[in-house]
Amino acid sequence: MTHKILIIDDEEKLRSLLARIVKSEGFEVLEAKDLKSGFKKLEQTDIDVVLCDVKLPDGNGVDFLQQIKGSFPLTEVILLTAFGNIADGVQAMKNGAFDYIVKGDDNDKIIPLLYKAVEKGHLQKKVQQLEKRIGDKYSFDTIIGKSKGIEQVIDLAQKVAKTDSTVLLTGETGTGKEVFAQAIHENSTRAGKSFVALNCSTFSKEILESELFGHKQGAFTGALKDKKGFIEEANGGTLFLDEIGEMPIELQAKLLRVLETSEYIPVGDTTSKKSNFRLIAATNRDLKTESDEHRFRSDLYFRLNIFEIKLPPLRERTKDIAPLTFSFVKQFSEKTNKKTLEISDDFLRKLENYSWPGNIRELKNIIERSVILSDTVLTADVLPYEMQHQPEKPTKSMSAFSMQSIEKLHIQKVLNYTKGNKAETARLLEIGIATLYRKLDEYGIQ
Questions:
Q1: DSSP reduced 3-state for 81
Q2: Of 29, 139, 338, 424, which residue is most buried, by most CB within 10 angstroms?
Q3: Residue 249: how many CB atoms within 10 A of its CB?
Q4: Is the pTM for the entire model greater than 0.90?
Q5: In this structure, are residues 208 and 248 in contact, taking their beta carbons and an 8 Å threshold?
């Protein structure tokens, strides 16, 4: 890829000479005689580095630098001056210049500086692309589900993401609490900062205290050097404490103090530190009951429960099983270098009939296993034994042999086939869209 260099200088001979030197290194060069025409070229072309004179007919390069950085933050700027001026040099670096050099005296530095500036800009662009990829991965748009329950949860999470409030995510294991925590962080004002996750059920009390608050060298056997805790790592960003209901009650008081004062003391230290972080906590326990029975501090519970979001279990999201399945099948087909497998009606019906005690995590694991075992089509015989031999869910208002039951099952099959596209479903069923919606309502199909 050819890198583009813009040279802004009102001295035509010097500008042309500099352009020839830069071109000889394989760079593409654009030229401008003043700041106005230079900025226009920046708007029209993706410039990697600007070589800009300080004294120009329509302004000062040091001031112009701020305008460039404000509009094109990934473009590096090297300022050129006929006379070295310490004050200008200091201000240039403050304004974001890559470097500030004197014409003539520093000519031999220009090409090496250009290569360094181009490399820095390239790295910044890669970081930005990675951050965007991470942001896209954890955006609310990537959360699969159109059931009423999950749509309500997404709406609540989007609203609270814009604030700095503490969030408590509750629900059964495997419902996607960490995915929601990440999405809230990536859609908050702290998105450019760290998202630090710690599972409170993983460690003993002593290790959890060290992981959370950090420790000083010599604080305990094995503490060979100072260690930053997760609270310090999360400064400016978000701290996600998963399974907070498992946190030993002795540590809960220390956490409460941090939430109320932003201050904490590392293990073995005597000096307090400060950390400005947003807390998102998650649990599969009923913390209200836990606090009523003195197994969880009530003052911490009330501090955490500023904004609770309860994630629905998968068995209450039957409508979402098909789209989740299609997504996981695609993901694991690619992972195992297989052509995306077809899904049989029987396979999908078994999934929709199952109670899912492990929720989305369990579904994901079962789909991965099924993809590994299958060649072209996912059939019910690759599912675990208990899923293959589960009893069909009885219908309350109709027998299994009634025409209504058959019609309902057929509509569900076509909906699954069209991945929930109601217009396409109505077309395949050869009925009007209004008739389809009436039947969906009649049969309680979401």
A1: strand
A2: 29
A3: 13
A4: no
A5: yes
